[in-house]
Write a structure and sequence with these properties.
Strand order of the largest sheet: 5-6-9-12-13-14-15-16
Bound molecules: 2-phosphoglycolic acid, zinc ion
Shape: globular
Number of strands: 17
Helix content: 25-40%
Radius of gyration: 20 Å
CATH architecture of the largest domain: Alpha-Beta Barrel
C-alpha cells in the first residue's frame, strides 16, 4: 500500500531543474527522476514547473495515499485527477514520476520484472555521434547517428560506439574541424550536413554500422519553408523533400527521424512509399501519443516511432502506444531526452516493451542507462541481443 509520496527538485544534465519523486510503501521507498527535452514536440504532454507542481501535489498525494501499489490503477487515478488530454493540470512530469515510482514499488525496484518474459531481448543502441540544431553545433540537422548491428551483447555494442565516437572526434580534431561537444555529448564541428555525411558514411562502412539522422525538421520549419542556416538557404517543402530523398540514396541512410515538420503526415507518408526498406521514424509528429500514432498508421506515415515516456505522461499509456506500433509493424524506438538524469528506467522499459532499438548517447549523460543494461544482461534469466527490426 502507498503510505506516503514526496517530491524533490533535482537537475538534468543541461543544468535545468527537474522532478524527483519518492513513493513510500511498507516495503520501503521507491523513486524516479524525470528527464527534460530541448527540441520538444508541440503535442507532448505538459511539463509543469516545480513551483506549479508543488501547488497541486497535496491533492494528488491525498488521493493516492492508501491505494495499492499498482501502476495501472495509479495511472488511471492520475488521469482522473488531471482530467485533460495532456496533463495540463498536474503535469506530465509529475504523473510519469509517480507512475514509474509506483511500478518500482510493485517490482521492489526492478522495473524489468513488470512483465514475466522467458527471454529478454536487448535493444541495439543508436547513438548521436555528430550533432547540431537545437542541441548545439553548426549543422541545421540535429543528429548524425550510428547503429552497431553485429554485436554480441550490450557491452560490446557500447564499446564499439565509444571507440568509433573517439576516432571521429580525433579525426575532426586533426583536420581542425572540431568545435567541442554538445549537450548530448555529440561532436560539434565546422562542416555542413553534406560533409558530415561524406565523412560518417565512410566510418559507418568501415565499422559495419548503420547510418542514421534525426533531422528534427520542426526546429527549422518557418511555417512555409525550411530555413537552413548551415547552407544559407531556404528550401520550399518540395525542395526539402527532394534533398532528403537524394541524401537517403547517396549516403545509404538506414534511419531517418523527423524528416518533415510535426504536422506534415502526408510527406512522411510519401517518403515511406518511396523508400520501402528504410526506418522512417516519427518523433515530434507522434509525440508518443496514441491518437497521433493512429493518424500516422492510417496513411502509413513512417515505419518507426520514437517512444519517449515523458512525452506521454504515464507508463500504461506509453505501453499502449508501443503495442499499437507493434500491431501495425511500426518499429518502436525507446528514446532518452537531451536533458537527462542518473535514473536509468528507460533501459528496463526497453526490455519489457521489447523495443529493438534504444536511442541513447555515448558515455555522458546516458552512461547510467548503458551501465543498467550491462547489469540486466547478467541479472535476467535468459537473454539475447535484438536483431535489426523487420518492417
Ligand atoms: P529533445 O529531443 O532534445 O527534446 O530530447 C531529442 C530528439 O529530437 O530526439
Ligand atoms: Zn527526435
Amino acid at each position: 500500500m502507498i503510505t506516503n509520496l514526496k517530491i524533490f527538485s533535482c537537475l538534468t544534465s543541461k543544468g535545468t531543474k527537474t522532478l524527483h519523486v519518492k513513493v513510500y510503501t511498507e516495503k520501503g521507498e521507491f523513486s524516479a527522476s524525470i528527464p527534460s527535452g530541448t527540441s520538444k514536440g508541440k503535442n507532448e504532454c505538459v511539463e509543469l514547473s516545480l513551483e506549479k507542481i508543488k501547488k497541486i501535489f497535496p491533492e494528488v498525494k491525498k488521493r493516492l495515499t492508501g491505494e495499492k501499489e499498482d501502476y495501472q490503477k495509479t495511472d488511471s487515478i492520475l488521469k482522473e485527477i488531471d482530467g485533460t488530454d495532456r496533463f495540463e493540470k498536474i503535469g506530465g512530469n509529475l504523473s510519469l514520476g509517480i507512475s514509474i515510482a509506483v511500478a518500482r514499488a510493485q517490482t521492489e525496484g526492478n522495473l524489468w520484472k513488470l512483465k514475466a518474459l522467458k527471454k529478454h531481448r536487448f535493444p541495439l543502441p543508436l547513438s548521436n555521434i555528430i550533432g547540431g540544431g537545437a542541441h548545439g553545433g553548426k549543422t541545421t540537422w540535429q543528429e548524425f547517428l550510428l547503429l552497431p548491428v553485429k554485436v554480441r551483447n550490450p557491452y560490446d555494442a557500447a564499446r564499439n560506439l565509444i571507440d568509433v565516437w573517439k576516432i571521429v572526434g580525433e579525426e575532426l580534431g586533426r583536420k581542425d574541424l572540431l568545435l567541442g561537444r554538445n549537450i548530448e555529448n555529440a561532436w560539434m564541428c565546422k562542416i555542413d550536413e553534406f560533409k558530415v555525411l561524406d565523412f560518417l558514411s565512410d566510418v559507418a562502412k568501415e565499422w559495419d554500422m548503420k547510418l542514421g539522422v534525426d533531422i528534427a525538421a520542426s526546429g527549422f520549419w518557418t511555417g512555409k519553408a525550411y530555413r537552413y542556416k548551415s547552407l544559407n538557404k531556404t528550401l520550399k517543402p518540395e525542395e526539402h523533400f527532394n534533398m532528403i530523398s537524394d541524401i537517403i540514396e547517396k549516403y545509404n541512410l538506414y534511419y531517418i527521424e523527423d524528416p518533415f515538420h510535426e504536422e506534415d503526415f502526408e510527406s512522411f507518408s510519401e517518403l515511406t512509399r518511396k523508400f520501402k526498406n528504410r526506418l522512417i521514424v516519427g518523433d515530434d509528429i507522434f509525440c508518443t501519443n496514441l491518437e497521433r500514432l493512429k493518424r500516422g498508421i492510417e496513411i502509413k506515415s513512417g515505419t518507426g516511432a520514437i517512444i519517449k515516456p515523458n512525452q506521454n505522461g504515464t507508463l500504461s499509456d506509453t505501453e499502449n502506444v508501443v503495442n499499437l506500433a507493434k500491431e501495425n509493424r511500426i518499429v518502436p524506438v525507446a528514446s532518452h531526452r537531451s536533458g537527462e538524469t542518473e535514473d536509468p528506467w528507460l533501459s528496463d522499459l526497453s526490455l519489457i516493451w521489447e523495443t529493438p532499438i534504444i536511442k541513447i548517447g555515448v558515455l555522458n549523460p546516458d552512461l547510467p542507462k548503458q551501465n543498467r543494461l550491462f547489469v540486466l544482461w547478467e541479472e535476467t534469466p535468459e537473454q539475447e541481443m535484438n536483431k535489426l527490426p523487420a518492417f
